[in-house]
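Consider the record:
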Amino acid sequence: MRRLLLPVALAAALLAGCSGDDPAPTPAPEPTASDSPTSTPDEPSPSPTDEPPSSPTREPGAGALDWQPVAGPVEDLVTVSGPWTLTQGEDGSSAELSGPDPRTVGAPAGFRITDTLIDGEYAVVVAGHEQETKPGIATVVELATGDVTRIDGSSDPATTNGGSWALGSGLLTHATVRKGDYCLAVVDLVAGSSRLGPCAPPRSGFNNVTTTAAGTSAMTFDSGRPSCRTLNRVEGASFVPLAGVTDCVGWDSAVTEVAQVWSEIPDERRIEVAEFFTDDGNGTVELGPGTSGTLTWCGDAAYFVRDPQRDSDPARLVRVLDGEAEVVYESPGTGRAFLSAPRCGGTDLTLTAFSAAGDEQVTTSLR
């Protein structure tokens, strides 16, 4: 049974200090949640307990979503977006955009497809260099017109090797290097313009970028061992730390005009295990355990994955809406199961589940 690597962020990565106008080296990854020791469907779950941690999360009920199967093998990473589907093949050689104007986006020679994003208005296919020595290349397709735009190392701001990509509300963000600084670039796809966003402090980097209709957030990290991580709202050219997050242990975040959802890592030896929280201005609410790197904003709510907390549990998808958490999906079977991070297609959510009881890829409309 093949395990799908979760698209989690780089853990506290080391960004070497630089000076002058030469490009800075890409942050070198430390272990990610998917690299850390954890269970697979073919191995026993690590140290299950008889009683799961207490959690305010409601079980599936009237709010559960209408999940439908996605055609094709579960090894292919599919994101549904209304009449469109964007499929990243397992071998990374190409991505298939299916729908009213289907097309194939192939990876250039020496590159491999690393990210596929779609939001109902645009589809973005990102190719990374296999030797990690050249800037990434993003192919942007405007779904309504079929117009194609390329963003690469010659763009302004230019792409760089690796880094976090995010798409939402007509904005595409990616990493860039400017005069030795590792920075966030913001592309306004609607206006056809780009700008330089905030830069990480010296010997620091950023990752886990999330964009909602109300704003963009990101995790910054320093070069310590372990690293000190800070969750931030992006405000113009600044990273502004989110209030209420425990110092140095944040991981995921998503922000709205009045609220925020985030995760923290209680044990640095198990960075895949997180605790999730929300605050709508009335104080912090604990949402219970979840899997780091899986927080996803889609429609008007946040979603995160919760791995089985005991042998009799399935893997679950939890929705956070209006300060409350509710289970909206459960994997087939119990115990030996895990879910990919959910993939947002603007008005649709797609999810892949792997379990000893069977694998499935499903989608649901949020309209």
